[in-house]
Amino acid sequence: MIAIGKINTLTVTDINQLNCTLSDGENQVNLSDTDSSSPLKKGDQLAVFVYTNKSGQLSATTKRPYAEADQFAYLKVVDENAVGVFMDLGIEKDLFIPKKEQRWPMVKGKSYVVYIYLDEGNNHLVGSTKIHKFIDRETHPLEEKQEVELLIGEETDLGYNAIINNRYIGLLYANEVFEDLRVGNKRKGWIKKIYDDGKIDLSLQEQGYGHILNTKDAILDKLKKNRGHLALGDKSSPEEIYQTLKISKKAFKKAIGALYKERLLTISDEYISLLNADSSSSA
């Protein structure tokens, strides 16, 4: 069965001067446009995005939309009218967001995180900025320290709500974010803590002992490239540490503490140095 609002692999069954018809063996759809530079022939298989066009008919395109049905995306409003707005989906037809699905009034020219779904009443794709309605709140398979994909959803008083693996939602605390995050950014993240009530804390830093090992290697590599010295120490700000090493201050202190115990470096309030830095640089 052809899935509307999704990428489908269909077979070319008919070609004439006006139309190219595709089929899944049961249903047919016309190809509206293609990015293919080579001529099509019967029997070819195409990966196409299927949608309902302005006339209410199914159409297919080889162009890739910015997102599909049942996904979250960060899209731009390109038009508006009395009943809603239209967002650029990356294909011929824009995505409609009715006013009733707008968490706040949406403005032409601005971008928003939306959830895309199929209106089963008319088979048209629509969107909503009321993203909490579409978050999966059932028991999830996520585990602490697990690597996940994040979409930054909104800024809050505590930090940033982020959509996890296109299904769940978690929180990045502002005091643990040391880069310029913006709504709509996609980032790799990690599950920091899962609470009994299902709430999830997130981190942009890898969690666990494996991260300490990676961080130690990164610090040693940075020291060797900087003649054995770095102007970072116990009193350095989290921002300074992140700007230089892309890690949190907590991770930095754990790693340099481990390196100190291994007698690989010396530590002060303002700097760290390889233990043999002075002798190696003077040789």
From TrEMBL:
<dbReference type="InterPro" id="IPR040764">
    <property type="entry name" value="CvfB_WH"/>
</dbReference>
<feature type="domain" description="Conserved virulence factor B-like winged helix">
    <location>
        <begin position="218"/>
        <end position="274"/>
    </location>
</feature>
<protein>
    <submittedName>
        <fullName>S1-like domain-containing RNA-binding protein</fullName>
    </submittedName>
</protein>
<dbReference type="InterPro" id="IPR012340">
    <property type="entry name" value="NA-bd_OB-fold"/>
</dbReference>
<feature type="domain" description="Conserved virulence factor B first S1">
    <location>
        <begin position="4"/>
        <end position="63"/>
    </location>
</feature>
<dbReference type="Pfam" id="PF17783">
    <property type="entry name" value="WHD_CvfB"/>
</dbReference>
<comment type="similarity">
    <text>Belongs to the CvfB family.</text>
</comment>
<dbReference type="InterPro" id="IPR036388">
    <property type="entry name" value="WH-like_DNA-bd_sf"/>
</dbReference>
<dbReference type="InterPro" id="IPR039566">
    <property type="entry name" value="CvfB_S1_st"/>
</dbReference>
<dbReference type="Pfam" id="PF13509">
    <property type="entry name" value="S1_2"/>
</dbReference>
<dbReference type="InterPro" id="IPR014464">
    <property type="entry name" value="CvfB_fam"/>
</dbReference>
